[in-house]
Amino acid sequence: MELEKARQRAEELRKVIEYNNRLYYDQDAPELEDFQYDALTRELKALEAQYPELIVPTSPTQHVGGTASSKFSKVTHAVKMESLQDAFSFDELREFDARVRDAGIEPEYVVEAKIDGLSVSLEYQNGTLVRGSTRGDGVVGEDVTENIRAIAHIPKQLLDAPEFLEVRGEVYMPREAFLKLKEEQELQDKTPFKNPRNAAAGSLRQKDARITASRGLSIFVFNMQQVRGRIFKTHSETLDYLKSLKFTVSPRYNVYHNIEDAIEEVKAIGEARGTLPFDIDGAVIKVNDLASRSLLGSTNKFPRWAIAFKYPPEVKETVVRDIEVTVGRTGVLTPTAVFDPIFLAGTSVARASLHNGDIIASLDVRIGDTVQVRKAGDIIPEVIGVVRHGENTVPYTMPCACPSCGAPVVHLQDESALRCVNPECPAQVLRNLIHFASRDAMAIDGLGEAVAAQLIDKGFVHTVADIYDLTMEQLLTLDKFKEKSATNLRTAIERSKGNNLDKLVFGLGIRNIGDKAAALLAERFGSMDAIRQATQEEIAEIDGFGGVMAQSVAEFFAKEGTADLIERLTKAGVNMTWHGEPKGTALEGKTIVVTGTLSRLSRQEAEALIKQNGGKASGSVSKKTSYVLAGEAAGSKLTKAQSLGVPVITEEEFFAMLGQ
Ligand SMILES: NC(=O)c1ccc[n+]([C@@H]2O[C@H](COP(=O)([O-])OP(=O)(O)OC[C@H]3O[C@@H](n4cnc5c(N)ncnc54)[C@H](O)[C@@H]3O)[C@@H](O)[C@H]2O)c1
Ligand SMILES: [Zn+2]
């Protein structure tokens, strides 16, 4: 009977796991957190260990999760792309060490961070990148060569390369790129990716490689799968060699002579976790000697010579001191829990969004409660539940008046959100103004949040059009403003009048219209007037537009106040027509440092090209640098880039990024 019960449970678990595998691997949209998923697989493994007769070859414990989708042509991997056995305690790592020793091996270990992205294989023939593929089910993956080529610092051409080389690496999305994408997706009312891993997988597995190119993906190469024409003895040697070929390899891969030292490194990587510019979900311990690896071999799912330690999600308790409600650009009221600061995944955290009243009600969070907070995907802090209510607390209710202007708030149809619909609500005007002046919109330098807030508080600005009437006298009343700063701001405001139409359209803050959609509108219709007169159907016909977006545009122009606003902007001399493509966007958001001697370009020319393509040219390398473009005899900047893990690109790769 015991066995029967176990069989039933195992079957149940397999169904749930397979279901979540499909969401995770094939749709890049998981419902469970990794640690919840891991708990399910551990339970299944434990059952199968206790009752080996329950093991079937189709069990998710016996094969690599995921399948190659029919969206891409298929690639059969010559060297299987395996998964890793995982450990959740240091004792499991010691047991792993014992198994290695039992095989007669005196091991040396390499420890690497386990990057949370998706696994790819890259093949090079005589130094040329000929194919890139995903893991799929480990044996058959997807051919994503075009998309792989769109990732800037995957080398397309190797110098002094062996005849044939296959490497394996993890394509990932840096946190900054993820946060930017998420914001963009939210602005356009698309369901944002849950975390950088899914964003990376979703961005790589696109039909249109241009989308992949725009997502800021990166790679760490962590294994040499095959090589012809060279011989290596250890894993660390292969990584040294791959590094010399200009691959970005695992950021640290130190060698240890016993498991305890390796465990110390696992701990150290765990402590550094929150400060890294990318997500890791564990650390991998690998046997360094390649001959020992062959000796140990693999099961049908993972190699016996490596093990992944998974870090537990960091959860801490704290006390909620307040629930603050702010009003966004579109009038939505967003509650935020403010709590005693706690240190989570490397940073101090004191606030977490509670999203809306429904979520507050379902958690029943009250001011004074002790709650558990976690950083979801290590990035965004989240209140996961109430441990206990504070004394004499009452359930929290959202305000019925706008905290900024006092107007009654409304519950719009089919929304959880409450909105203030007063068009003159100062909080909304403030958000609108900040958005209008922001870099991707009208790019008015010096008009940040602090200045915008003062302009509104002092009554100088009621709508964004008012900024074009600001006088020097008014600007000189602003905090810390002198002749020079006031003149600079005036100049920046003046200059913004000449911006291309897409910047203005984006700056207006039309719901669901991000910078890309704004550009499509501007390009398609050519003038503000033409956009205003376009029917919803005409707008919906634009490639890339959905019905919701078209409706938002129509609503915006039908709204009271819009006609006035456009008229005032026109009178102020703000440009209302589209004048062609002024510059490329291939390097948008990227900061690039040029160093060394390039063969086709002078440094000035390279920097001009960077700017023409929407990027920023900088003189010094920091963590914020996207790429270092290095030519011959590059010196300290190159070294610094390498030590910070900033990707280094060649002139050829640079031209490839520009599509030349
Ligand atoms: N949330 C969900 O619903 C859900 C569903 C399925 C899987 N998952 C997650 O995926 C995990 C299982 O996936 P898996 O089978 O791909 O195994 P895995 O992700 O735990 O480990 C194997 C992978 O690690 C990657 N990796 C990153 N850095 C590496 C390095 N330095 N050296 C070697 N490999 C490195 C490799 O690409 C390899 O494919 C689960 O533990 C779970 O966390 C979650
Ligand atoms: Zn209001």
Bound molecules: nicotinamide-adenine-dinucleotide, zinc ion
Figure out the total of helices.
24
Terminal Cα span = 69 Å
Calculate Rg over CA atoms.
28 Å
**Would you tell me the overall average pLDDT?**
91
Under the CATH scheme, which architecture of the largest domain would be assigned? 2-Layer Sandwich
In CATH, the homologous superfamily of the largest domain goes by the name: DNA ligase/mRNA capping enzyme
Low-confidence sequence ranges: none
CATH fold descriptor of the largest domain:
D-amino Acid Aminotransferase, Chain A, domain 1
Which structural class should the secondary elements be placed in?
alpha+beta
The helix content, as a percent range, equals: 25-40%
CATH class of the largest domain: Alpha Beta
**Structural domain tally:** 5
Give an overview of the whole structure.
The protein has 660 residues and is an alpha+beta fold. It has five domains: 2-54, Helix hairpin bin (Helix Hairpins, Orthogonal Bundle), CATH 1.10.287.610; 74-310, DNA ligase/mRNA capping enzyme (D-amino Acid Aminotransferase, Chain A, domain 1), CATH 3.30.470.30; 315-419, OB fold (Dihydrolipoamide Acetyltransferase, E2P); 426-572, 5' to 3' exonuclease, C-terminal subdomain (DNA polymerase, domain 1); 591-657, BRCT domain (Rossmann fold). Helices cover 37% and strands 20% of the residues. The protein contains 24 helices and 22 strands. The strands form six sheets. The protein has a five-stranded mixed β-sheet. Strands 14-13-12-15-16 form a five-stranded antiparallel β-sheet. Strands 5-4-7-8 form a four-stranded antiparallel β-sheet. A hairpin with a 6-residue loop joins strand 17 and strand 18. Helix 1 (2-26) packs antiparallel against helix 2. The longest helix is centred in the N-terminal third of the chain and has 25 residues, at 2-26. It is globular and about 80 Å long. The N and C termini lie far apart (69 Å). The relative contact order is 0.07. The model has no long low-confidence stretch (mean pLDDT 91). Bound molecules: nicotinamide-adenine-dinucleotide and zinc ion. Nicotinamide-adenine-dinucleotide (NAD) binds at residues 20-21, 23-24, 30, 32, 34, 37-38, 64-65, 83-84, 86, 112, 114-115, 119, 135, 170, 222, 250, 284, 308. Its EC number is 6.5.1.2. Residues 582-660 form the BRCT domain.
